[in-house]
Amino acid sequence: MPLSDKHDETKTYDDTLNAGPPISQLAREYITPTELFFVRNHASIPHVDLERYRLRVTGLVSRELSLSLDQIKNDFERQTLTATLQCAGNRRKEMVSHKPIDDQLAWGIEAIGTAQWAGVRLGDVLKAAGISSDQAAHIAFLGLDGITHDGERSPYGSSIPIEKALSCEVLLAYEMNGEDLPLAHGCPLRTVVPGYIGARSVKWLSDIAVQESPSDNYFQQVGYKLFPPSIDMYNVNYADGMQLTKLPVNSVIVRPEDRSLLPAGKIAVEGYAMSDGEHEITWISVSADGGETWQRAEFLNEPQLWTWQLWRTEFDLPQGQHELVVRAWDTAANSQPETIASTWNFKGYVNNAWHRVRITLK
Predict the structure, then answer these.
(1) Whether 118 contacts 35, CB under 8 Å
(2) What is the pLDDT of residues 128-148, one digit of tens each?
(3) pLDDT tens figures, 320-345
(4) Is the pTM of this model over 0.85?
(5) Residue 116, exposed/middle/buried by CB under 10 A (0-12, 13-18, 19+)?
(6) CA atoms of 340 and 135, how far apart (whole Å)
(7) Are 110 and 26 in contact (CB under 8 A)?
């Protein structure tokens, strides 16, 4: 059953908000303060009448549901989860420097954050609706934000495989860092799909549908697909693209920032690392000579599934120019490719090449 895109109670503001924290404030704490958590929106932020708000559950279910926010809070067990969300376009700016990418936000390293989420398990809501067919394979979501493509206006949408949807870590969240979910982050309700690209964690959630196939929404079928470096916007066939789901292993130097001018001597190097959430980061190596030699970084927090790993190390460096490099491994022995050329794609998604920062010491 297709999801409805008619929401009479919805109004929108005039602007589209996309923002990240100053790099100087990024990853200084394990839990990202809400005001520093990145925001990625595709249209104006919708205004929702909470009294009239309903979450609809339709499709291959035994009984369709229409749930108010109070029903969601009162009829299902409250769950909490600490999880990192990361935009698929995080680190796109490095790809742009390698080869131009058109019509995409040139994110640096800031499109990532970790929060304490509270809500109900998506699986519990699906259980209440009852999955009525063995053919059910995907769970599709629609938000309340309206986006115009080719002259037609439709809501933002996405989907995830049913196996992921039924996993205990996938939430319908109404709280963030101990407070009601802020409007910019999806109030009154959003999906939180740990380990997947942030685009699958749909905000301002209005509809859930149990389906045989993935969502036919633009952002599932076109917007967030991955292609090899040989494909560009002129020879692309979107039907051939890979639908983005799990995040690859990644690690980033946050401090010092690229092109910093610092006094010679002891230099502290800090950053974050992230895997697909199912595997913990187990090793982080950092180089101060462009990757010729390496030393292991120390963890600043206990490894935890579904969240980033903060790390730190020190070098004693002389005057001159130095290239800092970081790479990570997870418990499944997944690591990172060395070059941007091997990860480049014309949408600039999931860049996880070795991260490099050039500094000058005086």
Answers:
(1) no
(2) 999 999 999 999 999 999 887
(3) 999 999 999 999 999 999 999 999 99
(4) yes
(5) middle
(6) 40
(7) yes
